[in-house]
Amino acid sequence: MKTFAEYLTESKHTYDYRIKIVGDIDKEVMDSLKEKLKQFDVISVTGPKKTPVQKTLMDFPGIENQSVNILDVTFNYPATEPQIVQMAQLIGINPNHICMKSKNFDDAENKQLDLQAGNKNVLMSDYPATDKDQQEAKDNYANGSQDVLKNAYKSDFTIAGGKTAKAKTSNDYPQGTKSPIGGTNKRPVPKSSAK
User: Fold this and answer.
1) What is the pLDDT of residues 33-53, one digit of tens each?
2) Does 149 map to a domain?
């Protein structure tokens, strides 16, 4: 049987996050941020990787023509984005210029964007050329031919009871002789039992 300490070491969980900061960051500010992150029992921090300047930033709407510093951090304790934003604000980073996501979520988001960038715009492209089978099906169905199916359904059969007379509809009655509305109808006179 396992001891409690063995169960505890097996259940040890780490928390991987990606912190993104817009713009240039001084070394002193970055060192201060890394110092503040120690309260989550930091396992590792990858020093900031800087992206090239981009016109639009996915994680920062409204901010244009900036680069982004990316830190991958692994903690022993979970953290939330508001905690990280507040710590960054205390050391002088604009709270609108920092965000934190789960590393797995950010990787999946980037992968999805890469897939979308690889797809061409379907709405603006022409249909592909028809192949032989498509052309044959188009010809058969366009002509209204019932020979497409080998056991084609035919609607020429008789009913056991014989043919019934055609039903009369309102279109069969004479039109335009009397108005259904207005002075042609008599107003009813109510009969009262009062004396």
Assistant:
1) 999 999 988 889 988 899 889
2) no
